[in-house]
Amino acid sequence: MRECPTGAITVSDGQGWEALVGEIPDRVGGMTGRRRLPRRAVLRGLAGGVVGLAAAALVGCSDAEDDASGGAGTATARGGGAYRASITGVFAGVDPHAAVYAGSGIVAVAYNYLLRQEVARPDIGRQMDLAESMELGPDGLTWTFRLRPDARIAPNDQGVPERALDAEDVLASFRRMADPATGATAFPFFSQWVDTFDAPDERTVRLVTNRPFAWTPDVLGDNLQGAIAPREWLERGTAVRSQAVGAGPFRLESLQEGDRAVLRPNPNYYLPGLPRLDEFRIQLFQDNATQRTAFASRQVDTYLTADHEEAAALAQSVDGIVSTRHGSTGFNSFWMRATADPWTDERVRRAVSLAMNRQQYVDLLGKGLGHPMGPLKPLFQDYALAPEELATLQPFDPVEAARLFAAASVSAFDVVHPAAFTLADYASIFVRQMAEAGVTATARPMDTAAWLAGYFGSQHTATLAPNQQYKTPEVGLRWYRTGGVTGTGTYAHGYYRADIDSALDGAASIFDAAERQEAYRGVQRLILASDPAYLNIYNLVNHTLLYDDVTGLSPGPGAMDLFLMRDVRVGA
Fold first, then answer.
1. 212: Cβ–Cβ under 8 A, 6 or more apart, which residues?
2. Are the beta carbons of 536 and 375 closer than 8 angstroms?
3. What is the b/e burial string over 465-476, where b = at least 16 CB atoms within 10 angstroms of the residue's CB?
4. pTM of the entire structure?
5. What does the alpha-carbon distance between residue 253 and residue 245 come to, in Å, rounded to a whole number?
6. In the chain, pLDDT over 90 holds for what percent of residues?
7. Which sign, positive or negative, has the C-alpha torsion 226, 231, 236, 242?
8. Which of 144, 315, 395, 485 is a Cys-bridge partner for 1, taking CB atoms 3.0 to 4.6 Å apart?
């Protein structure tokens, strides 16, 4: 086994955030703004989670003797081989602006984005895509994007012309994101921060925020938020949920819920010779044991292990495996509907948090690797609370938990969770920890699709939730903002405070990185003091295994590896 280790400012490939903000004041005009899923679960079907959900490296390969034809257009074989992903769970559609589960991984490679970037992947940095350049004006509000002229729509059988995307496509996508009926992940951005957007010409898009918003490039560069789709395709209504037509590196050839998705190269892709693969397939497995067996027998090329012990065991038993260890955006949570008993009582919410020994989850499930988690994942480093402070603000105290449960006259409650993924393991620990605090928690697994519908509609009373691979602190803390994480009342637990909303607005408006980080730490202190209805458990550490004939893969936290799927090859 190998261990792998203030004037206008224009930004193009490779430049970092500091280059963008340049001489812009720390607070422009003194204004303040207003307003998953563990990675392993994402790879196994909860792609990117529910709002901030990305299919981060749904990977794997095998010979593809079936489904070798079909779909519109036929790309010339490129010699890059067939690459097969593996998931457990469901695709749950491929809506470019509201995809969840594994469908979001398809969106990430079938469509373009103005740019791509993630806070958690400074090793990759910003990557321009549909936009050749991005400029922030001296007012700190006006963002101007100059589009490349050659991002051509893939061949398709939906009647969408094979033309270059232009500014009208971007505006059509923006309008759809801003429509509350879409349920778009980017809706909070457009509804709360965006003033206007227009197109001075066919290759220029201008977006103006109503207050300074430091995370604008991150929203537009997030694979769960910023997809740009052809305007003709967006006019098809519900068809966009089951099929995909875009100008990204891959085109969706077929999607069979409960079975597989097959993608092939877009022969019109703007980078000649890319993507290198002849086929990218995502295969559904019924359980994790079957999925692991498929990897061990080389039916899939890449496998995200449960922990380092599983990684070591596989690497020792199978030749040709490369192991990479890296941080993860993944985590799981406990969600309470604060408008229903017993969760209306702040003492009960506080008792659950006190009864949760998060380090025990790290020790038992992460086999010692991982980090107890507060409102923000430790992967965000200076944005997150230091471990010592977090332990003080979010203590483990089962004796006090028992006292609070008793004071609130709570001796039992039910908690649901999806049957897929690893939530049963979390439920087992959760039930035991609640028992140690004198409460009988009954875990009830649900069909995954039914669970998701209930979670989306805020119908559960309490649930353990596989969570979202959100890319910024701003998105992560939307869970505590009025209106919920999507801003539309979906996935909403119902416990929100105006002072937290205001603090979040202020933090998001700060351009200076150090000041912004301290502001987000302050928001988390406020959240933890409020007995929140949304409790995170721990931030995972990932071990990705792949065979040594896979090249070009960039495993790591988040979903930038999906953007870079165009560089992957399998075989010589």
1. 27, 28, 29, 31, 33, 140, 141, 509, 510, 511
2. yes
3. bbbbbbbbbbbb
4. 0.79
5. 10
6. 63
7. negative
8. 315
CB 547 within 8 A of CB 298: yes
- SS3 for 97-129 is CCCCCCHHHHHHHHCECCEECCCCCCCCCCEEC
How much is the mean pLDDT over the chain? 85
Specify the pLDDT at position 290: 87
CB 300 within 8 A of CB 145: no
Identify the residue whose tokens are 């220029």.
Answer: 204
Q: pLDDT tens digits, residue range 505-536?
A: 999 999 999 999 999 999 999 999 999 999 99
> What CATH number should be reported for the domain whose range is 39-111+237-326+542-570?
3.40.190.10
Q: What are the structure tokens assigned to 348, written together? A: 């009960």
3-class SS of residue 375: coil
CB within 8 Å of 284: residues ≥ 6 apart: 45, 86, 87, 88, 89, 90, 258, 259, 260
Amino acid identity, position 267: P
Cβ of 306: how many Cβ atoms within 10 Å? 18
For domain 327-540, the CATH superfamily is Dipeptide-binding Protein; Domain 3 (3.10.105.10)
Does the domain spanning 6-35+128-230 belong to CATH 3.30.465.10?
no
Domains of the chain: which residue ranges? Answer: 6-35+128-230, 39-111+237-326+542-570, 327-540
